[in-house]
Amino acid sequence: MTQPTPARRLDEFKPDARFAWCVTGSGHMIEESIALALRLPGVDLFLSAAGEEVLPLYGWPIPKLREHFKVFRDNSASSVPVGMLYNGDYHTLVIAPATSNTVAKCAFGISDTLPTNLYAQAGKQCVPGIVFACDTAPSVITQAPKEWVEVRPRAIEFENVERLARFAHTTVARSLDELEAALDQRLSDLKLAWNTSSS
């Protein structure tokens, strides 16, 4: 069996390299995820088409996002923004929140959206990735746009999360606390710190 290639060294990234944060079509912990992104130094947002539809339902239309982030939308068949990974512009890929659809695609090497394409290319570039998977417990209480609902993931969702967790250079977060801990560890690796203000 081929051994995984080591993660890229910090000196292989540009001095002003940033976090590439992908948002997919899940409303689960989406507001909390954006709040974490706001606390990080240097974040660009990459939205799937579904993510772009969902974000305004939770108070984050594109104009508001652009007040805080550079925003890339999923509007090219070849996912042109992915090329920035090859230039060393991004030291870390984050997908948060990640739908079960996105997790499944990443776990099986399908890259037909901007986030899944970024994940695939980050893997090929040995860029560390953090994926906040939504469907990780037998019962999940999540906030829909107008109410709280219970979601009961299927066995296939759990299997895909475990499959993805075995990928090189990938950290799968199964809760918001695990996402924050993974980001904290990455900041430590990069010798960076959380922002003291999200404004």
From TrEMBL:
Coiled-coil regions listed: none
InterPro entries recorded: Flavin_trans-like (IPR036551), Flavoprotein (IPR003382)
Flavoprotein domain segment(s): 18-164
GO terms of molecular function: catalytic activity
Pfam families cross-referenced by the UniProt entry: Flavoprotein (PF02441)
Species the sequence originates in: Caballeronia ptereochthonis
SUPFAM superfamilies: Homo-oligomeric flavin-containing Cys decarboxylases, HFCD
Name of this protein: Flavoprotein
Superkingdom: Bacteria
